[in-house]
Amino acid sequence: MFTTYIEALEWIHARLRLGIKPGLKRMEWMMERLGHPETKMKTVHIGGTNGKGSTVTFLRSILEEGGYTVGTFTSPYIEQFNERISVNGKAITDAELLQLTNIILPLADELEETELGGPTEFEVITAMTFHYFAHINKVDIVIFEVGLGGRFDSTNIIQPLASIITNIGLDHTNILGSTYEEIAFEKAGIIKKNTALFTAVKHAGAIKEIEEQAQKKEAPLYRLDQEFSISGHKSLVKGEVFNVSTQFEALDHLEISMIGQHQTENAALAVITAQFLHQKDEFILTEQAIRAGLKKAYWPGRFEILSESPLVIIDGAHNEEGVAALTHELETRYPNRKIQVVFAALTDKKLDKMIAKLDKIASQITFVSFDFPRAEKAEELLIISQSANKLAVDDWRSFLIEEIKTLESNSVLVITGSLYFISEVKPFLDKCLKNKTTSL
Q1: 84-138 pLDDT, tens digit each
Q2: One domain for residues 68 and 135
Q3: Which of 309, 92, 272, 298 has the alpha carbon at shortest distance from 198?
Q4: What would the pLDDT profile of 205-249 be if each residue is shown by its tens digit?
Q5: Most CB within 10 Å of its CB: which of 80, 110, 157, 354?
Q6: Is the C-alpha dihedral spanning 159, 25, 138, 419 positive or negative?
Q7: What are the distances in angstroms from CA 57 to CA 1, 135, 295, 365, 385?
Q8: Based on the domain organization, do 282 and 423 belong to the same domain?
Q9: Does residue 416 belong to any structural domain of this protein?
C-alpha cells in the first residue's frame, strides 16, 4: 500500500524494467479481477505510427464543443505523468493516481506469481485507466490511443464505436515487422467486427493489408483520398486552413491551430469520425462544434513554437516519417533562415535516415542524450551524422540556455527527437522563457 503520490509513481516507473511484452492475457486477467471495466464505457480506438495524439486531441476537442465529457488515454506524457489519463484535457489528480495505483498493486503482485508474469508499466497504467473511467469518473466517451502496434496492444480489449488508423511508418520494426505490410497487419489488429474504420494510410501495400483485414471483419472502411478527401490547403502563420469532403458532409475553410500539413490529415480523420458518430445518433456534433473544436485543439510538443523572438520550436519527431514532416515544414516556412537543430533519440530507432534528413536542412546540428533507459549516447549519434557542422554535448540544459541567449535573428532553434526527451525539454524551456531567465 502506497501512502504518497511519489511512492506510487516510482513503483509505476520501476515497471519499465519489464520492457515491452506484447499480448493480451495479462490485461484480460486483470480485467476479470476488476469486473470487466472495459465493457462499461463508450470508446473510440486510435492507432497508427504518427499522429495518434493529435487525432485524439482533435476528436476530443470536437466532442467537448458538443457539450460532452471526454476521457482520454495517451502516451507518452509531455509535461506531467498524470496527463496520460485525462478528462477534457485535464490530467487526473495526484490523489486519484495514488488511489488507482493502490487498486492495481495487489493485482500486479498476484499476477507476478503466475506463469503470465507481472504486468508492464503500460499494462498497469492501461488497467488504471479502465477502472478510473468505469468506476471513479464516468464520462460520456473515452478515446484510447494505442501504445504499440495494435493487435497485441494492452488497449485492444475494447469494443469501440469506431476505430482510426492514422498512418503507417517503419517504426518499432524489431517488434512489429520490417515491412510496411507487416506493420500494417499489426496496426489493423484493432479493427473489430462490423465496426467502422477511418484511415489516412497511403502506402499501397499497407492500405491493401488494412483493406483485407477490414473485409474479413466486415468493417466499413473510410480511406483518405477515397471515401473522404482534403483540398484547398493553405498554411497560416500559426496553423492551417483546408477543406474536407466526406460522404456525410463537405466542410470548407476549416482552420486548425496546430502547425503542419500532416495535421490536416489528422484533423480530417477526427472530422469524419465525428460526423459518423453524429449520423449514428451516438452524439450530437454540429458543424459549429466541429469548426470550433478543430481551432481550439492543442497538443504539446508537435511543431510547437515556444518563443517567437528568439524563434524556438520543439517537435517530437521520433521516427523517419516524423522527421520528414518536420523538415518539410521547416523548409517551407523558413526558407531563408539558419536552422539550428538539437536532437536526441532512443537506441531502437532507425537513426541513420532520421539524421540524414536533419543533416540536409540544419546549418548546425547538436546531439544530446538524456536520462532515459533506452536513450542513445550523444557521441553515437554524432558518428552517424554527415554534417559539416555537428557537435555532441553532455549537458543539454546549459547548452540550450547558451544557444537561446546567442541565437541570431535570422536563425531558428529546433529541438526534436524522442517524445521522452521533449517531455523533459518543454517544461524546462517554458520556465526559462517565461521568466526570461538565462540561468539554471
Answers
A1: 999 999 999 999 999 999 999 999 999 999 999 999 999 999 999 999 999 999 9
A2: yes
A3: 272
A4: 999 999 999 999 999 999 999 999 999 999 999 999 999 999 999
A5: 354
A6: negative
A7: 34, 24, 11, 31, 34
A8: no
A9: yes
CA 258 – CA 293 distance, rounded (Å): 12
End-to-end CA distance of the chain: 36
Strand partners, 241: 234, 255
Domain residue limits at 178: 5-296
Q: Are strands 338-344 and 311-315 parallel, antiparallel or unpaired?
A: unpaired
Question: Alpha helices of 34-92 — where are they, by DSSP H?
Answer: 52-65
Q: Which of 275, 296, 317 is the last residue of a domain?
A: 296
Whether omega for the bond prior to residue 76 falls within 30 degrees of 0, making it cis, is yes
| Grid coordinates belonging to 75 | 502516451
The answer to whether the CB of 236 falls within 8 A of the CB of 305 is: no
Opening angle at CA 338, ends 400 and 419, nearest 5: 45
Same domain, 146 and 185: yes
- pTM score > 0.85 for this model? yes
**Are 317 and 250 members of one domain?**
no
45 shares its domain with 78: yes
Sheet hosting strand 85-87, strand order edge to edge: 90-91, 85-87, 70-73, 141-145, 43-47, 162-165, 197-199, 221-223
- Quickly tell me which residue has 515544414 as its cell: 329
Residues 6+ apart with CB under 8 A from 14: none
Nearest-angstrom CA–CA distance, 34 and 128 = 10
Q: Which among 265, 296, 327 is the end of a domain?
A: 296
Query: What domain count does the chain have?
Result: 2
